[in-house]
Amino acid sequence: MQRSDLPELVAMSRENMAAIILSSWGEEWKDERLMDLLLDQRVETTVLEGDDGIEAYYCVEDIDEYIFISSFQVRRDFHRKGLGTRMLDMIEERARRDGKAEVELCVQSTNEKAKEFYYYHGYDLMYRNGNNLIMRKKL
Ligand SMILES: CC(C)(COP(=O)(O)OP(=O)(O)OC[C@H]1O[C@@H](n2cnc3c(N)ncnc32)[C@H](O)[C@@H]1OP(=O)(O)O)[C@@H](O)C(=O)NCCC(=O)NCCS
């Protein structure tokens, strides 16, 4: 990720997530919250770029024996084109290479599309944390 990517990443995430955050947490979307994550030194952000600019990105954090996905976004006009699957493959490949046992993520309970996507890709529900679901896949 380049610093100049930040506005596009924030805009893409806001478009995808504002309604879901409101329905799950009852909170308005805040750009600053995502900016803090993207600028956090412990977070590694990978951006997928095409001819038409940034198409998708993900953030991961290295946590002991697993990798945690802290953001995972495909630009709305690129949904269902295989980019999400490609990003999960990249994350899982990297986790295996680093000797990790699992990949973990957190999804809002009202985010039906993402829940189905993760179930489809072998992630299991571990527990509920308020209006968030914690899901994991063993590698
Ligand atoms: C959820 C998301 C990441 C999926 O990425 P994507 O690039 O659209 O997904 P893919 O094209 O790789 O999907 C691959 C397969 O997963 C399954 N899948 C994807 N979305 C699905 C859905 N809504 N319902 C059921 N299956 C789904 C399909 O079987 C699909 O295969 P197909 O194309 O043959 O139908 C994407 O829709 C997104 O960015 N959503 C908004 C942001 C978000 O919610 N992020 C997660 C926050 S925790």
Largest sheet: 6 strands, mixed
Backbone CA Rg:
14 Å
Q: How would you sum up the global shape?
A: globular
| CATH class value | Alpha Beta
**Beta-strand level of the residues, as a percent range?**
25-35%
Averaged pLDDT:
96
Walk me through this protein's architecture:
A six-stranded mixed β-sheet has the order 1-2-3-4-6-5, with helices on both faces. The model has no long low-confidence stretch (mean pLDDT 96). The protein has one domain: Gcn5-related N-acetyltransferase (GNAT) (Aminopeptidase, 3-Layer(aba) Sandwich), CATH 3.40.630. The chain starts with 5 loop residues before the first helix and ends with a strand. Strand 1 and strand 2 form a beta hairpin. Helix content is 38%, strand content 35%. It contains four helices and six strands; from the N terminus they run H-H-E-E-E-H-E-H-E-E. Helix 1 crosses helix 2. The chain is α+β, with helices and mostly antiparallel strands and 139 residues long. Bound molecules: coenzyme A. Coenzyme A (COA) binds next to strand 3, helix 3 and helix 4.
